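Hi there,

I know you've been waiting on this one. I reran it after we fixed the sequence typo, so this is the corrected version. Both the input and the resulting structure follow.
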Amino acid sequence: MICTVGASTIGNIKRNELLNALYEKEKYEEIAKNFLNQPGQPQDIQLLGAEINSVASIVDLGHIDETKNIYFLHSQTPEGHSMAKILKYYFTNSPSLNFKNVQTIEIEGLSDSNKEDFKRKGLKNLVITMSRISRNHYAKTIINATGGYKAQIAFALALGQGMQIPVYYRYEKFPSVIELPPLPLTLDFQLYLNHRKIFDIIQDTEEISGFTLFSDVESIYNALEDKVKLLFEIEKMENKKYITINAMGLTFIESAKTYYKMQKKDITLKPRQNKDIQFLSSESEKNSLGLIKKYRIQEILNQVPYIELARVRKYSKIEINAGVVVDTLDKDLKVSIAKTEGIIRFLIETTATTPEELERAKNELQEYLSNKL
């Protein structure tokens, strides 16, 4: 279950003399223990707040088969951090709502203190985080969009609709959650394949440098259909124009990726002609060799019959074990492998000749490398 998190529970706490005293002393576990000791069913106790009430209602109504994984996505605010600690303790220790894996995830930029960060970073990071969790547990995921800013709830609904994930919401006066009905529209995901080049360029540039100069993609952008242009924002900073994919654009892209991942079309990938792949590194990225050798990356890639060439793009010595991410970059694939020793990025050339074939290669390689690494 993915849950958006708000701060309404903080208001309940501050209206209670005992709990407010604990809150001011930052004794969040004591607050959670107090919640756990409240008499009655958690879905009916208003003091516990929207997040606990709605999760308890979802479990009580049988909308999930088991209390296995729950992800609380909270704002980058003091209230968000407080809520994360309370919810973490509560759902780790609740006798009736004891989830095996309780994770609280801060969404960078999701704060009402800076409206530009909220729009440029917060909502986009929310969409990216929800989509990554959903893909990891696809066909077994639901979204609880009860808590948080109205924009949070709106994008949780939009992503859920696009990725065909059930979305639940509990209005404060309702006795239980409701499943939000599908929107009466369909998304034209062929637009994603038709215009993937500009999506790939912008996402790749932002991943590396943070910004994309409008001049780098101006000719491609000008040739776009008007309805596709709505997925981008162009802004001027320090006399230079920059372009970015907006939050709704990311919602569309993530939905399209999921749609093509689930397609059952008979798309085949030709095997390469040579026995082994070309594996290229560079002197400037020689520090990557230790990681390549330790995890047998060349050997593992060589087992994929449709890969023709793998070239090291960049190596960063950042201690993060974030796994494998495979995505498209124009007619090729880009692969990021993050281990505790560092992050290594590859450009992968395949035998794919159509956008549909490349999408299949991406999805298969993501699953293969995630299992191997």
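Quick highlight: The longest strand covers residues 307-316.

Best,
R. S.
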